Amino acid sequence: MPDKRHRAPARSVPPPQARDKLAFLLALVPWLLEHDRVSVAEAAAYFGVSEEEIRASVSLVAMSGVPGSTSTYQHEDLFDIDWTAFEDDDEIAITQHVAIDDAPRLSAREAAALIAGLQYLQALPENADRTAIRALVEKLSRGASAAPSQLAVAGGPESEVLGLVRRAVADGRRVRFAYLNSRGEREEREVDPLRVESIDADWYLRGWCHLRQALRTFRFDRMSDMVVTDAPIEHDASEVRLPDTLFEPTSSDLEVTIEAAPEVIGLLADYIPDGALTTQVGDRIRTTLRVSHYHGLKRLIAGMPGTVQVVAPEQARRAVSEWATAGLARYA
């Protein structure tokens, strides 16, 4: 007769670690509170665990809580469930919960700001999983301390062009378009699209330009005849380092000295080169900008009326002044 002491023990699934149990409980309790009353079978199917594990976890929750003012666990300091429904009908219903409502919640204004940012992200072509973003917007709306303001973020570039760029990014295809450069010259460009970004009302495509063999930034309102080609992209966002700033300085950039109100300096950060000398002049800050051409400078200054003044060179001052004078004359 074999000696049972040397028989190999039956293999079993190792019990979950304490950290895994805690993570599971932290997910289980909010889910139960959100669903009011559910069966053990429904909870087990949702979390992908056995019904016995759900029963054990619910029993543990019912013995959990926070010490009250007496530093002891009184009845009102503990979770409680509908024990009759749990034991007789295999249903879970939390009848008392503690500490959950004490967790910090977003204010209505904070939630609205985050929702606005998510709506903006939905316009970017690399965010293909827009369902996940919509689900997050709904969670933010439900989880705020009050109903967030109803708002909508202004749309991006023309939907047809944006739709083509989004399709090119999703399919990994190169785009071809006509582009009006800063010198007013029309060029044919083929680009591997990487990212769409915006500054104020202007939208830009960042991508690898096959004509220049470098990373370039293109304004949507200067692009025309957009076509998604059959050629696959040779560079994607995972292998091309996209700088934090939208515009990268080049040796051909023009330097312009400006004086600006302190509150708008942050809006000019993309144009201020590293190491630029900054001095206080009265209530203004004097610093240097780098721009590729004066046409862009005119638009930049016009977008911040009364807060930015061009100091030098004279050619830049004249370009901005003439442009503003011409605009004013149209209202005469």
TrEMBL record:
Residues 160-226 form the WYL domain. Residues 254-326 form the WCX domain. InterPro entries: CBASS_pafABC_assoc_protein (IPR051534), PafC-like (IPR028349), PafC_HTH (IPR043839), WCX_dom (IPR057727), WYL_dom (IPR026881). It holds the Pfam family WCX. Residues 20-142 form the PafC HTH domain. Coiled coil: none annotated. PANTHER family: PROTEIN PAFC, PTHR34580. This is WYL domain-containing protein. It comes from Protaetiibacter mangrovi.
